[in-house]
UniProtKB/TrEMBL annotation:
InterPro entries for this protein: D-isomer_DH_NAD-bd (IPR006140), NAD(P)-bd_dom_sf (IPR036291)
Domain of life: Bacteria
Key words, A-Z: NAD, Oxidoreductase
Protein name listed in UniProt: D-isomer specific 2-hydroxyacid dehydrogenase NAD-binding domain-containing protein
All copies of domain D-isomer specific 2-hydroxyacid dehydrogenase NAD-binding, residue ranges: 100-284
GO molecular function: NAD binding; oxidoreductase activity
Amino acid sequence: MKVLVPKAYKGRLPKIDDAEIVIIDGSQPVADEHLDAEVLVAWGQPNEVLKDSAQRLTRLRLVQAFLAGPDPVVAAGFDPEVPIASGVGLHDGPVAEHALGMILALLRNFPLAVQNAVRHVWAVGHDGAMKLRANDGRVTTLAGANVTIWGYGSIGSTLAPLVRALGADVTGVARTAGERDGVRVVDDSGLADVLAETDVLVMILPNHPSTANAMDAERFAQLKEGAVLVNVGRGSTVEEEALVEALESGRLAGAALDVTATEPLPAESPLWDQPTLLITPHVAGGRPQHADELLAHNIEAVRTGGVVRNLVRR
């Protein structure tokens, strides 16, 4: 069995009996000599390369995406009989850590601290970083803060204990309400009430028509004044014009984005000029953990007729 792994993946690879793992240049179409591959790992290939692979790799038995959101892999048009497995769970730790870092950066006024460092300005109080709010009741620490995680899945459930350890109260928002590991989870019907009490809103929503501009002007109006927003999900879920308005009006004390509606973020975007906004270039994930174990399990599953983990429904 030949397994194609793009060289963009730098992690560990499994050792599988009778399997030949071939490292390929994922930026280019698969070479003719490897069209007999039975397994393709999707990680970093451009959309056009994935589409080419869907057309030319006719012997595939498995497409294993290391991406948590397999949208581009599904859109490539692989044969419906070929199972596609996602990388859900592989990025829980890295994305949760990134989100935590962004939260703390906002609460500690790091956006202004970085700007001051560039200007060689020693500003002890960081005055103005997210409006003066030391004594006006707005959030400055996770201790006692209400943190809402919108898109409460595996990443959210990894982040929750991290912020709770620092004293925060956590509420999740998901399609189904209930309780998960001691965290209250509400559905969309309870979102407005939760937003009204939210100090820190973390968005981890996937890209889907139902989540497009989910955080719009109406939702910003429902959000507690002086809250901070972190988005490590997908850029399509935040209406950026409404975000800019919320930041400039001071209703939103600060925001941190790892994702934007258009990537790379255009140089002319007004987001770049927001002094209370922290931007990272879609790097919260990018370091899949235990991908070798997932790949080994799913190869064995397709060989033996077992259950493919993270199977994508199409």
